[in-house]
């Protein structure tokens, strides 16, 4: 099997994934998954599509991750892995889509408006 690549995005995070047959090693920016994401919850988010298909020990995954925070990066990586798995086996798409792993979460940060401290927050009103 040749290397399959895919892209996942979430907020400002971009994950480029390269999947090949192996024994289940996930390497992110030349670091191990457990080192890059010490939180068990984020590790679980990343592995969700693999666990759903029972393919956690079938593929070696190399990832280039940049931008955003750790939660956005984990969700971008989840989308990228799901897309790569569908490229490998298109029949898996319905199972992954039912779990919501194939949908790009398009919510972005709203821009700050002039005359306000944040996008929607207002300065305290003083009557006198």
Attribute tags:
128 residues, alpha+beta, Ribosomal Protein S5, domain 2, five-stranded mixed beta sheet, 23% strand, elongated
Instruction: Report the mean per-residue pLDDT as an integer.
Output: 93
Helical proportion?
A: 25-40%
CATH topology: Ribosomal Protein S5, domain 2
Cα shape: elongated
CATH class: Alpha Beta
Number of helices: 4
Question: How large is the radius of gyration?
Answer: 18 Å
Give me the secondary-structure category: alpha+beta
In whole angstroms, the N-to-C terminal distance is 73 Å
Strand content: 15-25%
Count of extended strands:
5
SSE layout and pairing:
Blueprint: E1 4-10, E2 13-21, E3 26-28, E4 31-32, H1 33-36, H2 40-53, E5 59-66, H3 70-88, H4 93-99
Parallel strand pairs: 3-5
Antiparallel strand pairs: 1-2, 2-5, 3-4
Helix pairs in contact: 2-3
